[in-house]
Every structure is written in C-alpha cells, then in structure tokens.
Amino acid sequence: TPLKRSHVGVREGDEVHMVVGSDESYFATFDAVREAYFPRTNEWIGEYPFLDRRAMPAVSARISRDAEDRAAFAERERRERAAGAGGGGYGPGPPP
Questions:
Q1: Among 1, 14, 9, which residue's Cα sits nearest to residue 60?
Q2: Nearest-5° Cα angle at 77, 76 to 78
Q3: pLDDT (tens digit, 9 = 90+) per residue, 74-94?
Q4: Do residues 10 and 46 touch, judged by C-beta distance below 8 A?
Q5: How many Cα neighbours within 13 Å face the side chain of 85?
Q6: CB atoms near residue 56 (< 10 Å)
Q7: Other residues' Cβ atoms within 10 Å of the Cβ of residue 37
Q8: pTM
C-alpha cells in the first residue's frame, strides 16, 4: 500500500537512492533514512526535504553512471584474468 496517493508509482524492487544520517564517517551503520528518491518515477518519500530535491536527478544519474563504470571495469579485469589464465600471455599489466 502506498504511503501517499502520490507514491502509487513506486513498486517493490525499484531502485532507490537514500539520504541517511550516521555518526560514522563510513556509514557502516546509520541512524535514520531521511529521504528516499526513486529515479524511475522521479518520486520522493520523506517527511521533510533535507536537501534541494531539484539536484537529485543529476546526482542519481551520476550514481548510475559510476556504477556502470565500476561494473565495466570489473568485467574487463575478469576477461583479462581469464585470458591470462590460458598461459602464454604477459598477464594483465597496469590498468589503462
């Protein structure tokens, strides 16, 4: 059941970016979820806007691009290790 009628577009399994509060610099644990942003629907769930929500679509796109870049880099490394495992190669060498 949606929290509000405006949250009807949010579905189980949707990607969500959250603003959390923590006393730890690496956010190993956090105290509270302040706001939740759903990029697919451009919807927010939160009682009070703790940040300028107009900027979040750009931040969200950057998060997605960075995740895609990390996944592509990991895939390249996996392929290089697999190619090097056959022998006869010089190994993966330094990253590009």
A1: 14
A2: 90
A3: 999 999 898 887 554 455 555
A4: no
A5: 6
A6: 19
A7: 22
A8: 0.51
